[in-house]
Design brief:
This protein is an alpha/beta fold. Helices cover 45% and strands 11% of the residues. The protein has 9 helices and 9 strands. Helix 7 links the parallel strand 6 and strand 7.
Amino acid sequence: MAVLFDTSVLLLALQPNAKPPLDPSTDKPLDQAKQRVEYLIKTLSKAKTKVIIPSPVLSELLVGAGTAGPQYIQELQKTPFRVSPFDTRAAIECADAMANHGTKGRSAETRAKVKFDRQIVAIAKVERVEAIYSDDDHIHKLGAQVGLKVVRTFELELDPDEAQHKLPLVPRVEPDEGEMPPPVVIAAVEQRVAENGGSAEPPRRKNPDAPEGGGVERR
């Protein structure tokens, strides 16, 4: 079993200050985007699911990595990642998709992106992944054309254990002096008064050691 990460999702996993995608429900940056991807990777690792990194994605990642490049490469050599090349099979898959769907675009730059994204989707097809994780609208379109599921970051779950640890503590509210007790307390006192013949005090009982006809009572 395998899945594939596009550049947008991979950056959230590797880059501390990666820009989060927009949350479609608020049109604002997605809350805890990095934590969502980290929990996804943790879940995939437990399930022994491979995370495929296409070589074009690795290239795009390293272009903007600067001095962090060697560290990124080292991280991607660990489980569950595996870099997959754009090889002969992927080239055939890509050519077939372009022949069927074309590379239409309004500019040479747009056509270049279409070809780049086609390579990513072609690698996903060759690797037979169950899903592509991407926030790129064009990857979603191309994935749908070839029958691949594409998942956005806002659809990912947060770690329930982490969420539980971050639950706010509810402060204990002490009643103000003179404040009426809760109704259940009032009812209990009234019941005791009725049972004790008009007194809220518990019934007294005789000291069995005291002499008859008097003696000291004890509570």
